[in-house]
Amino acid sequence: MKLQHGFTLIELMIALALGLIVSAAAILMFITAQKSYALQQGMANLQDNTTFGLNYITDEIRSTNLNNIKSIINDETTYGGIVFTSAANARTIPATGTVPKKVFSNLYPTLIGANTAESFLTSSGIHSSNVSCADVIDNGCESGDVSSDQLVIQYKPQYVTDDKGTTVTSDDMWFGGYDCEGNKIEFLKTEPAKRIIVQRYFLREDTDKGTEPNESLSLACDAGWYWESYKNSASADVNPTVLTDFGGQGEIIMKRVDHFRVLFGIHTEKGYEYISQETYMDLTEEPKPRILSVQLGLLGRSTQSVGSDSAFKDDQEFKILDQTVVVKTPTTNSSSKYVRQVVSQTIALRNTFGERGK
């Protein structure tokens, strides 16, 4: 009689149990690796987006007040500096004695049109954001939703001659590089004046979006220009009246920014401090302190989800310069989580060198 060899029921159950354990371990490793990959991709995406985007903005903002004859930047600086005022909100210094009233704005006061309105100037809290104030004391913001800031600068490019490779001079042009929207800054040398470039940094809705947990906000830059004033053949003053190509949607520089904050560095009797546009414009001293630097803070978010990891909470708090904020609870797609990071940069305004003080 032939002996039959095989597994007993107990041996089979042990083998199946060991196989299930090995399979479960393999599946767990796969899921962990998948989560780790998604997280790394999200972090890399966020790092590239915020770091390179902020570096680009930093280089642009360093042009503030370039080629201006005045080295002081405040709310009176024309043809350069940070644009706080226009004809729409120009301030008047009261007359004293026989001295006439002085009306000033630092976006040239003769410019007219809807794109010179206050909504297109440097402002605190005028654009959408995806954050609310955190429940902490002295957090730099009021209760409820927090709006993002807007920064507007102007400068005169360093122009060079472009002869277009010809020997004639009638087609010679001034070339001043490119604005933040990628437009070439050039015009014929026969023009009687040169262009002043105005650039506006703000958050807006991005139409190129997928399933988002909050508003698809991105940091954009809108650029425009106006002519310098000049004297015509009759030696009469010709002042600019039109701000061209300004007030549009602009070009997106950095995708998925939940909040954008701007502060201004000033030197006062108390020392060096950073204040918001609102606080700066509320200062009663005349003239207002010169602005020496700009501080930018933003809350960036990865463009792709990192899954539903519970480590990323919807109510996470972030400190953005002087504000402590919390991300709004998503209204849709709340199961998807995203990596967020605060990025800040202090930019010294190199075109403000001069005597310290007012």
From TrEMBL:
The chain crosses the membrane at residues 12-31. The keyword Lipoprotein does not apply. The keyword Electron transport does not apply. InterPro entries: N_methyl_site, Pilin-like, PilW. One of its GO terms (biological process) is type IV pilus assembly. Keywords: Membrane, Transmembrane, Transmembrane helix. This is Prepilin-type N-terminal cleavage/methylation domain-containing protein. The lineage of its organism: Bacteria, Pseudomonadati, Pseudomonadota, Gammaproteobacteria, Moraxellales.
